[in-house]
């Protein structure tokens, strides 16, 4: 089969690799029907994730069709249309028993495209299939389901829930890329009084308005005082969600949150950020970080099937699977192409 493989910083190859096979009874092999590219894949290609070894098939998000299962698989069968989650869960360890699947110590967690071959391929082996694949209803299209593999549960769990968003809150979301937009969409489920989106790109700020942001701020022309001035009493946000992954955006979040507020870091950081405890300790600020657990995936899938989540604008560009190199080039230059999420389909 063909797959996209990593060969050191800046080097990726679309070419022939061995077909995946069931190795243990809990495995399934899935034909990839739709796949996407994540910002984390770009971090890998920059060399920021040293655990990814030469020749690894990249990717951790997909929708596909089960073509083979091990003898221990019970919840999916050949022919089932499934969501391939970015997180694999053994289901037995202490973390999995608390639904903290991202920290699985039984061989799961974030492993696809990281420690084992991933989804940017014609077929993928999925460990712990019973706990890591989700059967899809016919009413949910491949493209919409693809957003449940990572960005929607990540934004919801690590951003909105960790940020403690409540009815009547003012929420500032720094970064209006796919994760930031998904955070706007899922924050609205809690009826905040005001959502403020901050970004450098006019196209992303426009997308934030369409997603439900009440106000937008051009990060190039504003500082924390401008953002605080948009909150009802000028004291700042109840919750600030960091959805970029740079020191500057993290530090901005700590400055725009009100006393007693919460900062939820979602972005993947490749450089150290300064934590100004000399200013923060007296303000009762809570800071959370996290890797998604995907415990919310069944809930979000039900809401998507029930037309309670609007994800129509998140995918902006579409490619055939064999055009994946072109898709990467566009995603790397997302700002220049006004690209949000790209989707690639089996042709």
Automatic annotation (TrEMBL):
Segments forming domain Alcohol dehydrogenase-like N-terminal: 25-137
Keywords: Metal-binding, Oxidoreductase, Zinc
Tree of life domain: Bacteria
Required cofactor names: Zn(2+)
Gene3D superfamilies: Medium-chain alcohol dehydrogenases, catalytic domain, NAD(P)-binding Rossmann-like Domain
Domain Alcohol dehydrogenase-like C-terminal residues, every copy: 178-297
Keyword field contains Oxidoreductase: yes
Family statement: Belongs to the zinc-containing alcohol dehydrogenase family.
UniProt-recorded name of the protein: Zinc-dependent alcohol dehydrogenase family protein
Originating organism: Kitasatospora cystarginea
């Amino acid at each position: 089969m063909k797959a996209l493989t990593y060969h050191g910083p800046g080097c990726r190859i679309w070419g022939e690799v061995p077909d995946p096979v069931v190795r243990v009874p809990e495995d399934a092999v899935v034909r990839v029907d739709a796949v996407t590219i994540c910002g984390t894949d770009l971090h890998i290609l920059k060399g920021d994730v040293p655990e990814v070894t030469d020749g690894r098939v990249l990717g951790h998000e997909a929708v596909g069709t089960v073509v083979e299962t091990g003898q221990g698989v019970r919840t999916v069968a050949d022919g089932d249309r499934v969501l391939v989650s970015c997180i694999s869960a053994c289901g037995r360890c202490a973390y999995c028993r608390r639904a903290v699947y991202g920290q699985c110590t039984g061989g799961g967690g974030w492993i696809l495209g990281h420690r084992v071959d991933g989804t940017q391929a014609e077929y993928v082996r999925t460990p712990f299939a019973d706990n890591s694949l989700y059967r899809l209803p016919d009413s949910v299209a491949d493209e919409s389901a693809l957003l449940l593999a990572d960005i929607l549960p990540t934004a919801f769990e690590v951003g909105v829930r960790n940020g403690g968003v409540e009815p009547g809150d003012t929420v500032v979301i720094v970064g209006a890329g796919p994760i930031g937009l998904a955070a706007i969409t899922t924050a609205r489920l809690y009826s905040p009084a005001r959502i403020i989106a901050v970004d450098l790109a006019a196209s992303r700020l426009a997308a934030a308005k369409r997603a439900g942001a009440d106000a937008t701020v051009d990060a190039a022309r504003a500082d924390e005082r401008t953002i605080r001035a948009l909150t009802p009493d000028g004291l700042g946000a109840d919750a600030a969600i960091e959805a970029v992954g740079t020191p500057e955006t993290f530090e901005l979040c700590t400055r725009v949150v009100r006393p007693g507020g919460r900062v939820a870091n979602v972005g993947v950081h490749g450089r150290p950020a300064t934590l100004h405890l000399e200013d923060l300790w007296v303000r009762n600020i809570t800071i959370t970080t996290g890797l998604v657990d995907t415990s919310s995936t069944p809930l979000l899938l039900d809401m998507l099937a029930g037309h309670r989540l609007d994800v129509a604008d998140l995918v902006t560009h579409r490619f055939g699977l064999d055009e994946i190199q072109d898709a990467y080039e566009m995603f790397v230059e997302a700002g220049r192409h006004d690209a949000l999420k790209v989707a690639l389909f089996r042709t």
